[in-house]
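User: Hello, can you help with two protein structures?

Assistant: Certainly.
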Amino acid sequence: GPQEQPWLELLRTGNLPDVPPYRWEGRFLTDLRWLPLLERAAQSGSATAAVLIGVLLTENSRREEARGWFERAGDDPLALRCLAQLEEDPDRACDLMSRALGLLGDEVTREYAQEYLQFLTQAGRLQQAWDFYDSQDASLQAYERVRLYVLSAALKLGKIDFLDEQYSHPFAVVREGEREYTGGYFTYQAWKDLPEGQDCPTEEQIR
């Protein structure tokens, strides 16, 4: 099928399709037997090959080697997104994702948006998370996981109408024990029981 075609081209010609990494439409393979072929393609300057090597090495627990390959790919949204996933510092991860989103421009997808919101929340940048969500078009805002990842920001900033809407919505993507939803729900309920004008309590305060 179409997702296997780029790999067949690599086998036959030693080259990958001439597309930037973020437009890659093939599968992401993780078998180390592909590594020599990908390395040869990368030697010809293929940024896509560099990112594919990075993914392959990441999945084989070779994260530091992977980081070098993602960096080698340069300023590409997918390479930056992968670097953000490897980053242990939430602020640094936010900055990498912000660069990726800037390069995407009007092509921001659900995956990039929800990961950026996750990183912003982990870094405590809740105002920034809300502002990002609020700036997106309705089609992106409609994704359930995007809305889940902005709940913490909405609670902190007192977006009560938004919270009312989310906690009356039957989310299909919520997994058992998912803290983005359950932790926020109890905080939201405790807040609604407080006199009007009081700040939203923290999870620790309601335990």
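That covers the first. Now for the second protein you mentioned:
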Amino acid sequence: CLAYFLLIFTSTNSIAAKELSVYLDEDISNIYKINKNQSSELLKLTRPPIIGFSRDKGWICNICKEIPSKKNGNLTVRRYKKMRSEWEIKDDQFWSDGTAITNKDIAYTISQLEYKYFIFKADKNNLKKFEIKFRSSTYDFYQMLNFSLLPHHKLSNIKIDEKPDNKDFLKDGFAYGPYKIKSATDNSVELIRNKYFSRVIYSSRTRGY
């Protein structure tokens, strides 16, 4: 699989205390070492899911301005309970090489995951905006975006039958969380602060729509 090395790190486990402090108010340390078998923690520190959960704030969008809702006008329920949600990526979201995160990254990730739970549509005129349609309404629709992004600008030109060398994933451009991978051994991974990371500014707790 093209992005196997990145896709294997998928988890919905609760955020660890160390990790939670990174997302909230404490300063981000420069170096953080983690055991290689702690894949869920590694994922959340380098490539957090689009939608995440905070014990204090509830469900939040790590890269978007807000989670669509009827209240903010970005969620509509149409005839036969079909739902349409409008999303917008924050302007301060970048990959660790300084490349801006766009709807192309989301579209590419969904294509690799072969998601069929919703219909994704990228805004061609504004790379920060995208639309997701659901065939039926559900109050927790946003949880379907609980997956991490793959970098379109790094992977889209690689042929599907080519598997990149693992060392390629240590280069800049594969992280957008508070840390990026500096080095790795058979037993551990050393993370270094991602200077392009922008702290999540949490809004109110999200419950239903």
